[in-house]
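Sample 1 of the test manifest.
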Amino acid sequence: MPGFDLALLLHGQYHDWLVAGLLVSLKLAAVVLACALPLAIVIALLRLAPHRALRAIGATYVEVIRNVPLLAHLLFWYFGAPELLPDAVKEKLYAGNFEFIAAAIALTLYAAAFMAENIRSGIRAIPAVQFEAGRALGLSFLGAMRRVVLPQALRVTVPPLLSQAIIFWNDTSVATVIGVGEMMYQAARVETATFRSAEAFVFITAAYLVGSLSLTALAAWVQRRWPVRTF
Amino acid sequence: MIDLIHTYWLYFLVGQYPQGPLGGVALTVLLAAFALLLSMPFGLAMGLARTSGRRALRWPATGLVYLVRGIPLLLVVFWAYFFLPSVTGHKTDQFNTMLIALVVFDSIYLGEIVRAGIQGVPSGQYESARALGLGHGRAMRSVILPQALRSMLPSLVNQFVSTIKATSLGYIIGLTDTSFIATQINTQVFTKAPQVYLLLSLTYFLLCFGLSRFAFALERRLGRRTSSPSPAAPAGSAA
């Protein structure tokens, strides 16, 4: 095996590929996080709703999504779902950057199921009397949640949500399977073009690690800065 | 969808076996089971190292946990795929590549489960074992671990679920697992992509949901047994 060629990573075409991959990974992670969080809050509230039918919808969503691997979600949204659409729409989709959209949809739905569970356990950590007092003061279900329970639950929920975010940051790599040009894809491309697998993999390993460890550090900082209040 | 199942069910379950290599659902389950079994000794070692009083053991183990949890499993698979051949000199097949990557991953996660199990045993247990004259190793083996391992059982089943889900990544390196077979079927049928991939999802769902329900039932049974009134048990030990 030839020696490790650092220059390959610092400039030139292959450097550009890998950096482009990093940017796509970051973009995918950002889109997923931004879309999954509101969805997760809705699902968590559904699971705690006063009506049995709403709770069943929330529970079904979480169980169905969580028990199917991300890869199957990606295959479904990229290869399966477009077949249900009219041909004209389908052609338009595949002509554009559909793999990124499909990956964003699959990852968002997947991430939301896990985050909803984190949020739900955060809400349940708040004593029920808080919610009851809110209702007794005349607030509605959503009002009591929004003004009384959720602000307190946030402190409990943010550290586990950040640990969950590490998992989704790593999970963006699976999007390579439907051809999204993210880091893993670009590393494989550099490997095929140059046979320099060590350089490409060292680069992306470092990039993933920096992302994950920053999130770990952020979670620790948040926990210190805003500790959970005990009741 | 029914005729799809009717035509391809055997191919989906076992791949081309016995005419060709084993594949499909059977391969997925087998690979996950092997990976979990093989990673158990390593997981135990990791858990003991993480809770050890010696820094020389605890720090490298902690570093390893941060390293492996900080990178995608797919990256571990790729490292194994491209570098095992240059170390061993001959090409590793997809099954063994995936197996090694999964063992690395499971060892780390099992290690964390073992650590939580050990830390969940009240410290009075360890102290009284030591006070009775047992050494560290003996106290761990005869007093702490038997109690810790029992409380770990549900987490172990859940780890099996995670491992089954993780085997799907073998698809990317061409392992003939359930996802790969589903894609093969999709290529052959060509017109029924939504049905094929729904069926694939449904298969994983039945496997994983069934197992996680089992873990849940196990947890409740164990919980009931630990919290059942025994005169010697101090209050609050049922956690």
